[in-house]
Amino acid sequence: MAGTRVSCGLEYSNVYELSDSLQESSRAGYDFISVPLAHPRFTREHVDGKAKDRQGAFTRSDLLLSSSEWNSLIVGRTTTSAILNLESPDSSLRQNSEETLLQELTFAAHLGLPAITVHLTTDRCSNVARIIHNKVVQGVCYQVWVRVPMQAPEEVAAQHRSDKQESEDGFAVDTWTWWNKFHSIANIQKKIGLMLEMSADLPDQTVIDRWLGEPVRCAVLPTTVWLTNKKGFPVLSRAHQLFVRALNKLHTQFIICGPLRHQHFKFYQQYLEHITRPQVEVDPLTDFARGYEDYLQCPLQPLMDNLESQTYEVFEKDPVKYQEYERAMFAAICDKISEEEKETKEIVLMVVGAGRGPLVRRALAAAKSAQRKIKVYAVEKNPNAVVTLQAQQDEDWGSQVTVVSCDMREWEAPEKADILVSELLGSFGDNELSPECLDGAQKFLKEDGISIPSSYTSYLSPLQSPKLYNEIRNCREKDKHFLAHFETPYVVYLHNKKELAPSQPLFTFTHPNTDKVINNNRYKALQFQITEDNVVHGFAGYFEASLYKDIMLSIKPETHSRGMFSWFPILFPLREPVPVRVGEIMEVHFWRCTTRKNVWYEWCVTSPFIMSVHNPNGRAYTIGL
After folding, report:
1. Helices and strands per DSSP (H, E), number in the chain
2. Selected catalytic residue, list 423, 436, 471, 544
């Protein structure tokens, strides 16, 4: 599902004629139906009992539908754990339940179903999680949707009330812990997803956000959660509408279940279609990132690799970045040349790492707006981009711009600059080696010269995302260290996730660097207060940059420059998910290490328990100088 249209199914408690039910649901606008794999009251005894030697099939024939219909239109429901005794201490009962479940799982594979559902009604799920995991590891065609209620059934909640005080919103039993236990025992398998059953009363937003960080494949909307409008049609409350829209952004499918409480089932589907219809897009970042959600990319290394024309073209389209750079250059030029000096004084502005010239064009535009005279040097090491710069110099810029084909750290400037401008920032601020480049280039900046940017700070926050953890786990390469994929940072547009604490500042770099001995090694430990039970799968990295005075660029969620898409966040994974409890402190240590040839990051967690260092000596990932 590409997000253009909501995918919706209809659940039948039991089906008399399968083809009739399919036609009925299709006429009502549904894409698929959910049916039990075997009749709920059909008891099977595999170990001992009267039914052990009973003749005949345990369910309907596969000839009732074509293979393509089984493959795309039917979601099979396994017998519920309320009927089976998969966690029973009685070995006979447990073994019989295991055989029953395995019989259904095997038949679902025979039919080639796209998905099957397993129902969780308690946190006692170790055995069923083991069985499902082992089946998935063997290799099956279907996905497993684990059905978990947002609110525990009344009888389960009642058992907890005797020893636990009920929470204000009525969610005394945290059903997320059921799902987390199941998913953890099943090794966070990619084929095992969450089927979330909505309740009439939704929990507070922090609980909803935690669910949205999970791989929600399907959401169940019982007819009991629907309201009725003045005309008698089904509608959802405002809170449910917002939740449905958030789920739809994760490409979640929906299922309507329960007895009909309005004129026709088609009205439920039509309403979902209505509220999930794509809105008119106004945010350039969301528009640009469409299709890149949770897609892992290796960070660019423009110092080591020459960027391609297509890469330059993408970043030059950013509607915000260059506008802010122009504002910063305008302010700096005005500060350098007063109103009285504008006819007599000319300043030198150097663009280091000029690329195909967007900052040069903005510098000239800023000088023209300020009615000041400037001389521009455009320094670029990529010989292919220099071709573009020289063409613009010949056709547009003339003698006002001098193009220099050279690494800024090796160039011998004929004169010193009043303003030094660069756009060497990466997703983590310093990860494209802006500190090393600008430290090397500052020798040709005057003592009272201005650097744009003047400073930048990296930020970190702990992240919950089973989806991203699975994506990273699947990146393993044969010829690399077996942990390399977990010791490599990735640039990624974070989507199916939840951040578990506000981001905190990590490393700050200032330009020009006035330290007597320049050292860009860094180390810092951060402590995050955990406010809910959850699991940490890695750390999201951001940056904030001060271009000049109060003119800022930021990809930090709290201060993000609206509409800017030049940088996605960076992700530092953890080898193993770290369970955290409410009230605990999570402590992470981060190092930025440098040698003459390379720069790299190392990181480790020391609380709530100790993990070994990731990426020691840059064994998995380095940034080449």
Report:
1. 16, 26
2. 423
Nearest to 602 by CA among 620, 586, 579: 620
Q: How many CA atoms lie within 13 A of 559 on its CB side?
A: 16
Residue 195 CA: distances (Å) to CA of 163, 176, 578: 29, 12, 23
Q: If you ran DSSP here, which 8-state letter would residue 97 be given?
A: H
Q: What share of the chain is helix, strand, coil (3-state, %, to 5)?
A: 30, 25, 40
CA–CA separation, 445 vs 463, rounded Å?
41
Render pLDDT for 124-165 as a digit per residue (tens, 0 to 9).
999 999 999 999 999 999 999 999 999 888 766 666 655 555
Spans in the chain with pLDDT lower than 50? 1-3, 166-170
pLDDT for 319 equals 83
Residues 614 and 529 grouped into a single domain: yes
Tell me what pLDDT residue 533 has. 94
Q: Is 432 known to be catalytic?
A: yes
414 shares its domain with 480 = no
Residue 51 has which token pair? 């039914």
SS3 317: coil
Return the pLDDT at 161: 59
User: What is the pTM (predicted TM-score) of this model?
Assistant: 0.90
Q: Are 118 and 82 in contact (CB under 8 A)?
A: no
List the CATH number of the domain containing 145: 3.20.20.150
Q: Are 92 and 190 contained in the same domain?
A: yes
**Are the CB atoms for 173 and 145 separated by under 8 Å?**
no
pLDDT at position 410 is: 86
Tell me the residue range of the domain where 222 lies: 1-31+206-279
d(CA 130, CA 124): 12
Counted domains in the chain: 4
Among 432, 436, 471, 499, the one annotated catalytic: 432
Do 479 and 612 reside in the same domain of the chain? yes
Q: What's the first-to-final CA gap in the chain, in angstroms?
A: 43
603/533 same-domain check = yes
